[in-house]
Amino acid sequence: MENNKTEFKVKGKEMLPKIIELMREGNVERFIIKDIEGHIYMEIPLTKSDMNETLMALLAKASVLAELISDFTLEVIKKDSKNKKKS
Q1: Under 8 Å CB-to-CB from 52, ≥6 apart: which residues?
Q2: pLDDT given for residue 86 in this prediction
Q3: ∠47-51-55 over CA atoms, to 5°?
Q4: What is the pLDDT of residue 9?
């Protein structure tokens, strides 16, 4: 199974709503939160078994970061679906 990476440039207060939106879309395997220079602040792997605990910890940590830093890159790694159509 291959991974699909996507990066979003977000302002501090936009980060939490974006994370929640992406988690609702599903298939998120990992979030990586970086500053504008590419330094990693937080890397959060997600599994179905710990989704609720992970979400609460993520929101708490991300809200602190959002208050301290104004610009972020949110890298999202998703699992590709097995039934992906071939061109």
Answers
A1: none
A2: 45
A3: 125
A4: 92
Contact 35, 69 (CB under 8 A): yes
Report d(CA 18, CA 11) in Å as an integer. Answer: 10
- Full-model pTM: 0.68
Please give the CATH topology (third level) of the domain spanning 3-79.
Answer: Beta-Lactamase (3.30.450)
As a dihedral over the C-alpha atoms of residue 23, residue 53, residue 15, residue 32, rounded to 10 degrees, the angle is -80
Q: Rounded to an integer, what distance in angstroms lies between the CA atom of residue 5 and that of residue 72?
A: 16
User: What's the full length of the chain, in residues?
Assistant: 87
CB 15 within 8 A of CB 75: no
**pLDDT per residue as tens digits for the range 16-56:** 888 888 888 878 888 888 888 889 988 887 766 656 666 67
- Per domain, the residue ranges of the chain are 3-79
Which residue's structure tokens are 């979003």? 8
